[in-house]
Structure formats: C-alpha cells, structure tokens
C-alpha cells in the first residue's frame, strides 16, 4: 500500500465518514491483505466494524473469497461502506466485481475505490488495468452506483519515501441508491449474463491449458 494511497483514503475518511464518528458502521475492504500497509488503521473508531477480504489468507484478511467475482460468503445489503485500494487493476473483469460491490452495499451506502492511472507493470498475479476518471465513472455507472466525485492525482501532493508519485491514483467516491424493482432486476440480469460469459471464458482457458500439457 503506497503512501499517497493511504493519504487519499485518509481524506475519504475525514470527508465522508467523519459524521459517523461514534456511530455503528460496517466497513468492507476489498483486497485488504497487509502488503506494506493497510487501511485498517484509518478505520479505528471503536464503533466501526471493519472486515478485510482478499483472495488468499494473510495479515489483514478476515474473509477469503472464492474469487473476485464470487462474494457468496458476504450477505447482500450488509455493509455501509465498501473501500478498495490498489486492487482493481489486478482484477481481469472489474465490471463483474463492481456488481458485487453494489450487492453487498446497503441502500444509501458509499464506496471508495482507488486505482492507479500510471506506473510500471506490477503483476499480483496479473496487472490488467489503469483507470482515468472517465473509465472509473463508467465502471460505477455500470454497477448502478451514483458518482459523488472522481479525480486523478496527476501531481500527487506531499513528500513520500516510496514511489507514490508514479501511480497517479484515480479516486472514485460513489453511492448506492435506494433499491427499486426495475433497478434491481437490471442489475440481476447483468450479473446473470456475466456469469455465463465468465463460465465460458473459464472453460476456454482451462481447455487451452490442457492442450499445452
């Protein structure tokens, strides 16, 4: 977790979560494994319940998910806040993952996603994407989330000991609307279609691997 990302998430907390100080709040961190730092330290209000999830067990991980597209261990409409930093660039199909973000958020819940717009390749285990504001906002809209703000830190402020300036992070803040019948149906149809596409792609990928053996 590079230092400028910690600063950006700290600004999200002070701007959007300060009003919830001392009040119960359920927070979900996607890609929470402690690799050179974690957002957990920013969410230290004793009334806030912080859950970290990732694809493998490790420090900072409370729940291991089956895949970036299968969050079945997490109940729907159960979190007030979903955060993620330096994870979405490593997800092959983020348009599927953003639908799971929508699903687990409570109506009116808020999300903060941080992902780089620049920097060198860093596979973990893959490095697929860089996000500009237009792309990040399009991802939010695909996930039926209303954009609150979205910006790229083209010139990161502050002095950092790591290579933070290279990443030029894009920071999205979005909110889930109150549920409505047509909106819920639309999201469910998207998810059903994408599950079929992903299953087909997974089968093709496995067949290609077997053909190489």
Trace the largest sheet across and list its strands. Answer: 3-2-1-4-5-7-6
Structural domains: how many: 1
Please identify the structural class as seen in this structure.
alpha/beta
Q: How many helices does DSSP assign?
A: 4
Q: Would you report the number of β strands?
A: 7
Share of residues in strands: 15-25%
CATH superfamily: Vaccinia Virus protein VP39
Terminal-residue CA separation = 37 Å
Which geometry do the CA atoms define? globular
CATH topology (level 3) name: Rossmann fold
CATH architecture designation? 3-Layer(aba) Sandwich
How do the helices and strands line up, and which of them pair or pack?
Elements (H helix, E strand, L loop, with lengths): L2 H15 L7 E6 L17 E7 L8 E2 L14 E7 L8 H11 E12 L16 H10 L2 E8 L16 E8 L4 H32 L1
Parallel strand pairs: 1-2, 1-4, 2-3, 4-5
Antiparallel strand pairs: 5-7, 6-7
Describe the model.
- The protein has 213 residues and is α/β, with parallel strands linked by helices.
- It has one domain: Rossmann fold (3-Layer(aba) Sandwich), CATH 3.40.50.
- The mean pLDDT is 88.
Index terms:
Rossmann fold, globular, 4 helices, 7-stranded mixed β-sheet, 32% helix, 213 residues, alpha/beta, 7 strands
């Amino acid at each position: 977790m590079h230092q400028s990302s910690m600063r950006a998430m700290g600004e999200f907390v002070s701007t959007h979560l300060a009003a919830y100080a001392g009040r119960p709040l359920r927070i979900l961190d996607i890609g929470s494994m402690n690799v050179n730092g974690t957002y957990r330290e920013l969410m230290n209000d004793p009334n806030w319940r912080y859950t970290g999830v990732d694809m493998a067990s490790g420090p900072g991980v409370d729940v291991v998910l089956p895949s970036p597209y299968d969050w079945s261990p997490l109940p729907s409409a159960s979190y007030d806040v979903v955060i993620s930093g330096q994870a979405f660039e490593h997800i092959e199909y983020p348009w599927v993952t953003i639908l799971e973000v929508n699903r687990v958020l409570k109506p009116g819940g808020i999300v903060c996603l941080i992902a780089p717009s620049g920097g060198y390749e860093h596979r973990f285990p893959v490095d697929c994407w860089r996000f500009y504001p237009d792309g990040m906002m399009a991802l939010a809209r695909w996930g039926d989330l209303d954009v609150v703000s979205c910006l790229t830190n083209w010139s990161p402020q502050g002095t950092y000991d790591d290579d933070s300036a290279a990443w030029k992070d894009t920071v999205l803040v979005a909110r889930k609307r109150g549920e409505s019948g047509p909106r819920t149906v639309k999201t469910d149809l998207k998810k059903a279609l994408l599950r079929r596409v992903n299953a087909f792609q997974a089968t093709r990928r496995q067949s290609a691997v077997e053909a190489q053996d």
